[in-house]
Amino acid sequence: MTTKTLKAAAAGSSILPAIFAVVLGLGIITVTGHVQASGLHDAAHDVRHATGFPCH
């Protein structure tokens, strides 16, 4: 491969994780924006207990 081909391949592979992060972030914001507050609280509370953080 030539140097130009390697540079083009490197540029293309670095944009994919950024696009994935943006899509994932927008998805999280959209889901949490539509859930009821009590459901979001309960989910966060359960995660705290599962990971061993005290919350009471």
Describe the structure.
With 56 residues, this protein is an all-alpha fold. Helices cover 84% and strands 0% of the residues. The chain has helices at residues 3-34, 37-51. The chain is elongated. It starts with a helix and ends in a 5-residue tail after the last helix. InterPro entries: CbtB_put (IPR012667). Pfam families: CbtB. This is Putative cobalt transporter subunit (CbtB). It comes from Falsiruegeria litorea R37.
Give the SSE map.
Elements: H1 3-34, H2 37-51
InterPro entries: CbtB_put
Pfam families: CbtB (PF09489)
Protein name: Putative cobalt transporter subunit (CbtB)
The residue ranges in which pLDDT falls below 50 over 5 or more consecutive positions are: none
Topology, number of strands: 0
Q: Write the H/E string, N to C.
A: HH
Radius of gyration, in Å, reads 20 Å
Largest sheet: none
End-to-end distance, in Å?
60 Å
Q: How would you describe the shape?
A: elongated
What is the structural class?
Answer: mainly alpha
Provide a count of the helices. 2
Mean pLDDT: 82
Assess the beta-strand content as a share of residues: under 5%
Helix content: over 70%
